[in-house]
Amino acid sequence: MHILVSGAGVAGLSAAINLGRRGNQVTLIELAPEIRTSGTPIDIRGEALVIAGEMGLRGRMEEKRAHVTDRIKYVDENGGFLADVPFTDANDSPDDLEITREDLSEILTSALAETGTEIRFGESVEALTDDGDGVDVQFTSGRTERFDLVLGADGLHSKVRAVVFGPERDYLRHLGAYIGGVELPPSCHPGEYNLMYSFPGHSAGIMAYDGKVRGGFIFGGAPIDYDHHDVEAQKKIVADAFAGVTAWRVPELLQAVREDNGTFYFDSVSQIHLSGWHRGRVALVGDAAHCSALLSGRGTSLALTGTYYLAEELERAKGDHRIAFARYESRQRPSVDFAQQSVTQGEALFLSGQ
Ligand SMILES: Cc1cc2nc3c(=O)[nH]c(=O)nc-3n(C[C@H](O)[C@H](O)[C@H](O)COP(=O)(O)OP(=O)(O)OC[C@H]3O[C@@H](n4cnc5c(N)ncnc54)[C@H](O)[C@@H]3O)c2cc1C
């Protein structure tokens, strides 16, 4: 089948690998000019570790395992010691694998290259028409093309979902917080522990792993209306949330945000709740379908499992997308429900300011 995958994050890359390996002709599009690799290290856990093994990628992932200290030292406004707490969440497997987004993307991208899949950067879906026999896609570049199936792997603010299922506000559940992160120079290394300075509704921190240092911000707040692709607007939201804060190293972190050129990441802590992840010949995978929120620590694992199930079920159903999409959803739902119910712990840890 000729399948369009929109979005080259973990879900899109993994979908393209699994579908391409099963003999489908995949076209992968990505809005950004290149694969986006920044972000804090992410966890691969539970069934996703098994899937990584099935995909033949677990060994490479183990080799790139990131070493992140699992303790946070809370400090006061002068950097003085307040408390030392474990930074762990409810594990579902003892052998969770932590890896940087950069290394994971690289592993997936090189596995994808072996399938000969084409990636088109700077491209997005503009409109879709599903006539039952195929999907006509109009791209923002002006190009039009027909596909057998379309997968929306374009994240929390999915364009495919907006076009086919309706506006984001109908599906997005804002959990009352925002997260920002930026890479820092090695000279900002926090030492033995990750550091966190908190005051009610806000946290700012510095974490280190394998020679990299990253600053982060978390703050509470009602939904903000902003352009999800406008990085300068996102930087301003973070600056406004911490405006006037001179305590600890907050000014230094804000300066790093202002001066950053490409490693800044920002989004709301939100979930996507849809009663069904497919409509006709279009299906959603990863955060586009079921974002479990940044603090769940399970989004990447779910992106890996769901895309593997979908490709496997499509092969089993001999290309009958109705059967395959329904089976994909029933296999993936229980883990999504579990992940979506598990986020409150993280929020309490970072936003209480205790
Ligand atoms: C740059 C970046 C940094 C991240 N940092 C963290 C982090 O620090 N901590 C954390 O917990 N999670 C982070 N995440 C989210 C985490 O990677 C995902 O929750 C999880 O891996 C599920 O991945 P996904 O592929 O479904 O979504 P995403 O990782 O969000 O990938 C979606 C992809 O689709 C692309 N895209 C968006 N709109 C369009 C469009 N209209 N057309 C085509 N492509 C489009 C995006 O550029 C992106 O590459 C980050 C995501 C990104 C993109």
SSE layout and pairing:
Blueprint: E1 2-6, H1 10-21, E2 25-30, E3 42-44, H2 47-54, H3 58-63, E4 71-75, E5 81-86, E6 97-99, H4 101-113, E7 118-121, E8 125-130, E9 135-139, E10 144-147, E11 149-152, H5 159-165, E12 172-184, E13 194-199, E14 202-209, E15 212-220, H6 231-241, H7 250-259, E16 265-272, E17 278-279, E18 282-284, H8 287-290, H9 299-316, H10 321-340, H11 344-351
Parallel strand pairs: 1-2, 1-11, 2-7, 4-13, 11-18
Antiparallel strand pairs: 3-6, 4-5, 8-9, 9-10, 12-15, 12-16, 13-14, 14-15, 17-18
Helix pairs in contact: 1-4, 1-9, 2-9, 9-10
Protein model, in words:
The protein is α/β, with parallel strands linked by helices and 354 residues long. The protein contains eleven helices and 18 strands. Strands 5-4-13-14-15-12-16 form a seven-stranded mixed sheet, sandwiched between helices. α1 packs parallel to α4 (101-113) and α9 runs antiparallel to α10 (321-340). Bound molecules: flavin-adenine dinucleotide (FAD).
